[in-house]
Design brief:
about 450 residues, alpha+beta, about 40% helix, elongated, RNA-binding
Length: about 450
RNA sequence: GUGGGCUUAGUUCAGUUUGGUUAGAACGCCAGAUUGUGGCUCUGGAGGUCACCGGUUCAAGUCCGGUAGUCCACCCCA
């Protein structure tokens, strides 16, 4: 009987051609992380629910995949959720990393620079560029307050995306500036409402944002005072100049502005090309509420898709696990979205690899001793090869080479064994030569 | 969580408007023409409980309801 098979909602299989492209992205990321001295860690797919709950806001808690305790299959009726589930799938890599730091604090050498490339799970409703299982590629520096870390993260972003061929804009803001603005209009407790509303300015326009702010309990006067921030335009320098006056006397806001300026000035002076990608954007808020300083988000210039990388500074993430005063800053690359962007812009080019360079034709077991010897010699020369496992019609074997885009076929039969040669056929040109093994290796290497 | 579109062969899709005998095409797959030479061509073949469950009807791929999946927008996010 035929069974209907499928993967669960919002998850995907990755076929070999897709995997080869994904690996190219992961390799590019990893290579650059290593160049800046980050070391890898991994954490379990499962975390205790107590680790995860309450870290992502109300919305995040709803999107957590909770795991049924084992051995309870038939007993779940009339039980509270907390009784039947005390584990969940990780929602991101940052919170598990905070847990990791607290748990391993005695072995870790601070400042600790780690990278982590693993899937995360969210019970979101899937749509374009949004999956229930997707990979995050995180780098964080923990145990250092220096703003040089922020600068470094931007340099890494630049290297990665220029190597991948994606034109990006790096949007930059600072949570302290947002807090300062909220103080300026006498609504510090409305910080979250304000950021959620102004985050939408590009999408829905000024008037609707003002309506939303009113709905969220801001007075007419407060909204009027906020308006110059909402409509703020111009170069980075013009914007910061405005805020310098606007936030004068508000300590937290001034501090945020100072931090932002340090990062931007450092880049402008030493990496002007990178600085050109930076856009100070007061409407950048980012949902997660654990950020305290710099926040940044990377957008692809040529494709309409959500952000492909984002992050920021969190002064006290480990505080929720009882370890205070450890500041961290990090970013997360969204590999799946980067893939979608590159696919849309046709940036993979010749990344896709072939399974092997050479296919050995199978004429029967009597030739195997020769073929095995040759095959090993090719491998020692770094040439990947496949011996066709069945002695079937040549048409089928050649077909196999064609379909897999294997560029060379080697035929060894009676003639070749007698002459101590191989017949090397180039599948693109159709040219076939009788050569010694060494000549064949040279030909393949020169291809 | 809210709203909308879609679901027919391995794949991409016709057919649904106006219910009516045996549901089609292209590509792919298998075999042969061609047993030491692939791509092209020709011939033949296999492959569908029309997503699932129920309803209306003499009759449902076609109409109605529900469920699931998928895509899109919103919310939120990578």
């Amino acid at each position: 009987m035929k069974v209907k098979v499928s993967v669960p909602k919002g998850t995907r299989d990755f076929t070999p051609d897709v995997m080869l492209k994904r690996k190219y992205i992961f390799d590019t990321l990893e290579k650059n992380f290593r160049l800046f001295g980050y070391v890898p860690i991994e954490t379990p797919a499962l975390e205790n629910l107590s680790t995860l709950l309450g870290k992502y806001g109300e919305e995040g808690d709803k999107l957590l995949f909770k795991i049924l305790n084992s051995g309870l299959d038939n007993k779940i009726e009339n039980k509270e959720i907390k009784d039947i589930s005390n584990k969940g799938l990780r929602y991101d890599l940052t919170v598990p990393f905070a847990r990791y730091v607290v748990q391993h604090r005695n072995e870790i050498i601070f400042p600790f620079k780690r990278y982590q490339i693993q899937p995360v799970w969210r019970a979101d409703k899937p749509q374009k560029g949004r999956y229930r299982e997707f990979y995050q590629c995180d780098i964080d520096v923990i145990g250092s307050n220096s703003l040089l870390n922020e600068v470094e993260l931007i340099l890494i972003i630049n290297r990665v995306f220029s190597q991948l061929g994606i034109n990006v804009t790096i949007k930059l803001n600072n949570r302290k500036i947002l807090a300062g603005i909220a103080q300026k209009i006498n609504a510090p407790e409305k910080l979250t409402d304000i950021t959620i509303a102004i985050d939408k300015i590009e999408k829905i326009g000024l008037e609707k944002v003002k309506n939303e702010l009113a709905q969220r309990g801001l007075s007419k006067e407060q909204i009027d005072e906020l308006e110059p921030v909402l409509t703020l335009e111009g170069s980075n320098l013009e914007k910061t100049a405005f805020l310098k006056t606007y936030l004068e006397g508000i300590e937290e806001g001034e501090k945020g502005l100072e931090e932002l300026l340090f990062v931007m000035d450092t880049l402008r002076e030493t990496f002007p090309a990178v600085y050109n990608l930076i856009e100070f954007d007061t409407s950048l808020a980012r949902g997660l509420n654990y950020y305290t300083g710099a926040i940044l988000e990377v957008k692809a210039n040529d494709v309409a898709i959500g952000s492909i990388c984002g992050g920021g500074r969190y002064d006290n993430l480990t505080g929720i696990f009882g370890m205070d005063n450890v500041s961290g800053v990090g970013i997360s690359f969204g590999a799946d979205r980067i893939y979608d962007v590159m696919e849309q812009l046709n940036l993979f080019g010749n990344v896709a690899d072939v399974p092997a360079k050479v296919l050995f034709i199978n004429f029967g077991n009597e030739y195997l001793p020769h073929i095995y010897g040759y095959s090993e010699t090719l491998r020692e020369n770094g040439i990947s090869n496949i011996i066709y496992p069945d002695n079937v019609k040549l048409k089928k074997q050649f077909d196999y080479a064609n379909k897999n885009k294997i560029p060379f076929v080697i035929i060894i039969g009676e003639n070749e064994v007698n002459n101590n040669t191989v017949a090397l056929k180039n599948m693109q040109t159709g040219e076939q030569l009788e050569l010694t093994l060494l000549q064949a290796i040279e030909t393949i290497k020169n291809d």
